[in-house]
Amino acid sequence: MAAGNSRHSIAGAISDLLAGTPTHPSAVLLEGEPGIGKTTLLRAAAAEAGALGFTVLSTTGSVAESMPSYAALADLLAPVDEDLLSLLPAPQRNALSQVRRPERGAGPTDQRAVAAAFLSTIRALADRTPVLIVIDDLQWLDPSSTAVLSFAVRRISGPVRVLAAVRSDEVTSARWLTLAWPDAVRTICVPAQTLGAMHAMIQRRHGHSLPRPALTRIHRISGGNPFYALELSRTVDWIADPDATLPPTLAEMVRTRLEGLGADTEAALLIVACATTPTLNWFSAPLRRKSGM
């Protein structure tokens, strides 16, 4: 069951997750609506864990990557040294090599070997340092990675921590996050931001405060959602037009903004949306070819 908490107490719960010298694994699952601040909490936790000497393995689910096999698992394995992987039995080592660097025509990967190899890797890492596995947008993990993670987290032991975030309307997709120890997984519902916290966030982001009536309207319309509030705060010039009409929903605001884009901008956005991991070089290449450069 998800516990209701203030943002301060959530930060405390995450710090507790990372504190001390744990003898068995535990996990915290953050649930909340899109834009409520789950990613910010996960990034802060990853930085805190790194400063405490944890090995941090992280991945973010993506709609664009919800089908390719082992996309999330490859992200988690990216920081792992080759020296450690070289100690795995040959079948496991070969399976992980195919996950990290897929080769065309190599045939299907043995999921049992991948799962055993990932578990062995986590155990080997935990023998060296505490381990934190961070999973954002858990609801969009690819099925192959989910199957491997489900196998591993039920069998891990020692100083291993899991911190994950999932959308409230997709929380059933996190049912696989079950550890061997009773009550080892704590689910926390990320609450709406208070008016005071929203004021501080907007001031920090824009470098100035908004009139209190405008801030109150933003808080009411956004429902305390930080992402929605930031978007609303830059929608109009609040000093010049404190009574400006605001879109009633985030979807309506995004729709209005997109309708104002030109054809060239829409084409550029389409190109970026088609790429799994767009980079500046990747994006500029077709433009150079189009312009004959």
TrEMBL record:
This is ATP-binding protein. The lineage of its organism: Bacteria, Bacillati, Actinomycetota, Actinomycetes, Mycobacteriales. It comes from the Bacteria. Residues 24-231 form the AAA+ ATPase domain. Keywords: ATP-binding, Nucleotide-binding. GO terms for molecular function: ATP binding. InterPro entries: AAA+_ATPase (IPR003593), AAA_16 (IPR041664), P-loop_NTPase (IPR027417). The keyword Signal does not apply. It comes from Mycolicibacterium arenosum. SMART domains: AAA. The keyword ATP-binding applies.
